[in-house]
């Protein structure tokens, strides 16, 4: 039997556009002689629609589009697709099973995830009695995303009262309509999961995942079809839409997984492209400091939007080195992007003159340093407003974690591109970008990192070396390891106390940052919700002595 997986990129709220994407997949399946079309979770609304689900007009529009898609199954084609659907019990995260122009059954999601970035209990009513669908002589086990993620051997912390896969044993096929967000390394986890569930169901498992960037969440596609004995029949491309035609009697294919650097860069490029275009921007703006972070953001933006649509601006201040100015200009030339210099000396001096009376008798401190960053932020926002470019911020996860960033300064902008990438990983990706030639000038990669806000300043004047800092941050933020245990793993108690205290004290800054693209399992954003006014892991509880 031949089937088609529509690994499409739905846009949240673009119901008619999403319908058109689905119809294109259906027509290609018909032309290819397929019997079945599988499309992703909530494909007509886009995922995650969040509080748009509270809009009755959106839900009604999705229902009308669903009936158009049902009608497109004429001629004996089976089409299974995701849609928000209201019934007598309430709103459902549903899969429609259509055949030969008729709606055969509405299958509702049983397991509603409410952890990390997910909040489905806020909107949906769960199905408590999942069972297969009989259609056109086939017995189909239809599941939706989380329905196959109840696997204690892989995820012992996820516990549900039912396991939908137990109800789908010995079907002809098990389908999973998915909107599974990306993070690095997830492809291997998914393959292991799909193989395990196919074996448990004793049936081939068809996993159709959406692709595209929806705000902070990135969806990588990589749809799969796996037989009951574990053979991989197809793997969809990463970060690309695709119509995948699969013959269930076809040969096994090798599993492909790009390296960390390629995967991260591809995710960021897709995230910038989709965020910009879906928010109505065609051009972007980046402040180039001559440092590693803005270099990576510029490379991502040039790849995502085209070099002709990226404008970079260098803003030398009183402590900027000529080397940094030259490095920024060289990077812009390598990328083929516009580069302008906008010195901040005059504006910065005007700030100081204006404040001189109020600041009289007080020593120079971080206030004057931050004024430089805020001067740059104000000028970049002015250019963004005047010319309609999306301003991209350049702060990395290490800096944002410990507050090494300035509100209303370098945090100004519409999208935080590398906010989920530690500094050491920024270097990894940049060196990978230079694998075929010096896209990023070598001096940017080798000079000590510096914000250049004071004479001779380097980051390590006030921060531990980034390999040490990032190791502590990774354990504390991503792995949720307690500070005392971090010390037990070989880190200095005073340093751990200092780093953790910096993370906690800087939470208010992260609440005010632009949305950031999520590439790890624990990003700053909707999946991490820390109170501001609290006293755990500050100067008190839970810190090592």
Task: Briefly say what this structure is.
By secondary structure, the protein is α/β, with parallel strands linked by helices.
Structure description:
Helix content is 35%, strand content 18%. The chain has 545 residues and is of the alpha/beta class. The chain has two domains: 2-249, Carbon-nitrogen hydrolase (Nitrilase/N-carbamoyl-D-aminoacid amidohydrolase), CATH 3.60.110.10; 264-459, Rossmann fold (3-Layer(aba) Sandwich), CATH 3.40.50.620. The strands form four sheets. It has a six-stranded mixed sheet, covered by helices on one side. The radius of gyration is 26 Å and the shape is elongated. 47% of the residues are buried.
What is the element layout, followed by pairings?
Blueprint: E1 2-7, H1 15-31, E2 36-38, H2 56-71, E3 78-87, E4 90-99, E5 102-108, E6 133-135, E7 138-144, E8 173-178, H3 186-201, E9 205-209, E10 211-214, E11 217-220, E12 224-226, E13 232-235, E14 242-247, H4 260-278, E15 284-287, H5 292-305, E16 310-314, H6 322-335, E17 338-341, H7 345-359, H8 366-387, E18 390-393, H9 397-402, E19 415-416, H10 423-433, H11 442-446, H12 466-478, H13 483-488, H14 493-505, H15 507-511
Parallel strand pairs: 1-2, 2-3, 7-8, 8-9, 15-16, 15-18, 16-17, 18-19
Antiparallel strand pairs: 1-14, 3-4, 4-5, 6-7, 9-12, 10-11, 12-13
Helix pairs in contact: 1-2, 4-5, 4-10, 5-6, 5-10, 7-8
């Amino acid at each position: 039997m031949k089937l088609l997986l529509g690994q499409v990129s739905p846009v949240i709220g673009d119901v008619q556009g999403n319908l058109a994407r689905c119809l294109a997949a259906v027509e290609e399946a018909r032309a290819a002689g397929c019997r079945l079309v599988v499309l992703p979770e909530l494909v007509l609304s886009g995922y995650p629609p969040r509080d748009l689900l509270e809009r009755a007009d959106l839900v009604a529009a999705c229902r009308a589009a669903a009936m158009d898609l049902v009608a497109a199954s004429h001629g004996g084609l089976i089409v299974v697709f995701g849609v928000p659907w209201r019934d007598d019990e309430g709103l459902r995260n549903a899969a429609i099973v259509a055949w030969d122009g008729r709606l055969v059954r509405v299958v509702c999601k049983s397991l509603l995830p409410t952890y990390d970035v997910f909040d489905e209990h806020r909107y949906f009513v769960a199905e408590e009695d999942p069972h297969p669908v009989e259609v056109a002589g086939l017995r189909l086990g239809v599941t939706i995303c989380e329905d196959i993620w109840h696997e204690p051997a892989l995820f012992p912390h996820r516990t549900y009262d039912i396991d939908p896969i137990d109800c789908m044993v010995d079907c002809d096929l098990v389908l999973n309509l998915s909107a599974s967000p990306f993070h690095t390394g997830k492809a291997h986890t998914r393959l292991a999961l799909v193989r395990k569930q196919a074996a448990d169901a004793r049936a081939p498992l068809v996993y159709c995942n959406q692709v595209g960037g929806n705000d902070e969440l990135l969806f990588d596609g990589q749809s799969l079809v796996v037989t009951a004995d574990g053979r991989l029949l197809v793997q969809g491309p990463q970060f690309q839409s695709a119509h995948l035609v699969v013959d269930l009697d076809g040969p096994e294919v090798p599993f492909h997984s790009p390296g960390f650097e390629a995967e991260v860069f591809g995710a960021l490029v897709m995230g910038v492209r989709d965020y910009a275009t879906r928010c109505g921007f065609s051009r972007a703006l980046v402040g180039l400091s001559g440092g590693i972070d803005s270099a990576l953001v510029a490379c991502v933006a040039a790849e995502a939007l085209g070099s002709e649509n990226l404008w970079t601006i260098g803003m030398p201040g009183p402590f900027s080195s000529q080397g940094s100015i030259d490095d920024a200009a060289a990077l812009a030339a390598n990328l083929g992007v516009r580069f302008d210099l906008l010195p901040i000396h005059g504006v910065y001096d005007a700030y100081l003159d204006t404040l001189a009376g109020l600041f009289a008798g007080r020593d120079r401190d971080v206030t004057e340093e931050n004024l430089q960053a805020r001067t740059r932020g104000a000028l970049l926002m002015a250019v963004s407003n005047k010319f309609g470019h999306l301003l991209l911020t350049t702060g990395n996860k290490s800096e944002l974690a410990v507050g090494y960033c300035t509100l209303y300064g370098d945090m100004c902008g519409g999208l935080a591109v590398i906010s989920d990438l530690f500094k050491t990983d920024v270097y990894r990706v940049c060196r990978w970008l230079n694998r075929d030639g010096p896209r990023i000038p070598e001096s940017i990669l080798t000079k000590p990192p510096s914000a250049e806000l004071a004479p001779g300043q380097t980051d390590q004047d006030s921060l531990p070396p980034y390999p040490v800092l990032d190791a502590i941050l990774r354990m504390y933020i991503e792995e949720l390891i307690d500070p005392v245990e971090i010390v037990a793993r070989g880190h200095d108690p005073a340093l751990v106390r200092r780093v953790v205290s910096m993370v906690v004290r800087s939470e208010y800054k992260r609440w005010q940052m632009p949305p950031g693209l999520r590439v790890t399992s624990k990003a700053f954003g909707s999946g991490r919700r820390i109170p501001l006014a609290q006293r755990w892991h500050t100067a008190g509880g839970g810190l090592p002595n």
